Amino acid sequence: MTTPDSLLAGLDEQQRVAAEALLGPVCILAGAGTGKTRAITHRIAYGVASGAYAPNRVMALTFTSRSAAELRGRLRQLGAGGVAARTFHAAALSQLNFFWPQAVGGQPPSVLSGKGRMLGQAAEKLSLKVDTATLRDVAAEIEWRKVSALSIDDYAARLESRTIPGRLTGEQLVMLHQAYESLKDERRQFDFEDVLLSCAGMIETEASVAMQVREQYRFFVVDEYQDVSPLQQHLLDLWLGGRRDICVVGDASQTIYSFAGARSDYLLDFERRYADATVVRLEQNYRSVSTVVDTANRLMKGRPGALELHSLPDRQSVSATEAEIRSHSSDIAEARAVAQAILEQIAAGVKPEHIAVLFRVNVQAAALETALGEVGVSYQLRGATRFFDLPEVRQAIMTLRAASVSISGEPLFKSVSDVLRSLGWSQSPPEARGAVRDRWEALNAIMGLVDEAAPTTTFRQFTDELMERQAGQHDPTVSAVTLATLHSAKGLEWEAVHLIGLSEGLVPISYAKTFEQIDEERRLLYVGITRARSLLRLSWSQTGQQRGGQREPSRFLAELGSRTPRVAGAALR
């Protein structure tokens, strides 16, 4: 049975301070790998177990469906399954759907799955010829305008500081914003930002809605608070309604979405806003060896809000605490060296799924895919088709669900394996590569979830959990090396991490010109570095895939080690 004391027993000193600060404003400054999710879930569960919180009056907010699903799963295991853990958008949409019929009447507008098609139609109405890439950039500008709480007129006044997408003029861009909004209103549709705006508007203008919302939720916890936008902060303030039971958790050094409207100011200014706030600093890193921790600290030393991480004594690296930096003659040479190093790591016993190669932009993946293919190493490109969107995975889940209704009493392994065998799974992987092997890997990943299930799990419970994973996009582990951009790697970790392409023009990216933009690139590299548990390799290439154009090493590399980067024609070791 879960007791209040048992919930505190496994926490370190600072995590325990955070968990016991149940009332009033609380700010948890949590560095990378310091167990922030553990701290906040145990805090919520302790509040429920001790009677300080009624579970249905707590709202835990985060930014991705995956993070929300992870919070719900952990809270359920800790005996606090009644707590709502949602993204800002999911919470706002739920309230909008509930209150719209009584406040406005009828059903709320439908929500667009994306802006691209309607933006294209708006451009046609204006007789503007706009390509797909430009439309994507315009969509990003619309999102930034809305989450920054700017009207179209306010946005127009700031155009001098914005990058105009494609070949559009500033006037055309503003007209496109207006045409998009008009077309959306005519068709009675919302985009994702409208969900937040409309929920906020409803609370502001309808006293009965505000009263009911504030009666329902009394205690708020906001994860990844460094990523909050002005619009999200405004909505959070409306939910609070002047009350002070708010706990925020974040790390200013991991603010990497400023381009999308995120502001770390709210985190950094929390103490000024709440003079009596309880502030807890989590700096004990449980993830990485000292080499990684020291590298991360050097990169962020002296930056606003930076925490100084400490590695555990048993995670002290026996090697030098400077990062190993390698230089290669070209992108292809760099990719082949990384592929060879990965092959050696796998031969030494590191599982492929515990290895990642991180880079700044997606185009860098091509050389890596070729090099890994040459040495026969399986890989998955993060950000491509998501696991639960794969046709074979959708088919498998539907078939498993149907079978779970009629099959019971058998061992879970037998029930699941029988169904997956009917779809082409086998205990031994096929020798062929390509689509056949990809299908087997996907089915085998589902099979791997059986090993993770509790011994008493029934077939029906297994499929229930599988469908919950699908809803939260909580992908299972696939036995393959991960290739990912630095942005998409946030929140993840691997045993071995290879950071490639660390040259000027890539890290920092060429269009980062201002001090603030360069600083964001620094934080992005910090995120990449802190993904590694035991092994970190940094590299750059002197030329690109095209001839000519000599590169210079990233300005950040000089801060990470005093040793001169070595030119490597051989594998990384």
Characterization of the model:
Helix 2 (13-20) packs across helix 3 (36-49), helix 15 (290-300) packs antiparallel against helix 22 and helix 18 packs antiparallel against helix 21 (459-472). Mean pLDDT is 88; it is low at 562-573. The protein has 573 residues and is α/β, with parallel strands linked by helices. The chain is built from 23 helices and 17 strands.
Short description:
This protein has 23 helices and 17 strands. With 573 residues, the protein is α/β, with parallel strands linked by helices. The strands form 4 sheets. Strands 13-14-12-15-16-11-17 form a 7-stranded parallel sheet.
What labels describe this entry?
573 residues; alpha/beta; disordered C terminus
Going across the biggest sheet, name each strand in turn: 13-14-12-15-16-11-17
Mean pLDDT: 88
* Class by SSE composition: alpha/beta
Proportion of residues in helical segments = 40-55%
Topology readout:
Elements: H1 4-9, H2 13-20, E1 26-30, H3 36-49, E2 58-62, H4 65-77, E3 84-87, H5 88-103, E4 110-111, H6 116-125, H7 132-147, H8 152-157, H9 170-186, E5 189-190, H10 192-205, H11 207-216, E6 219-222, H12 230-240, E7 246-250, H13 265-268, H14 270-273, E8 278-282, E9 284-285, H15 290-300, E10 310-311, E11 324-328, H16 331-347, E12 355-359, H17 365-374, E13 379-381, H18 391-406, H19 412-422, H20 435-452, H21 459-472, E14 481-485, E15 494-499, H22 515-529, E16 532-541, H23 557-560, E17 566-567
Parallel strand pairs: 1-7, 1-8, 2-3, 2-6, 4-5, 6-7, 9-10, 11-16, 11-17, 12-14, 12-15, 13-14, 15-16
Helix pairs in contact: 2-3, 4-21, 5-10, 6-9, 10-11, 10-12, 15-22, 16-17, 18-19, 18-21, 19-20
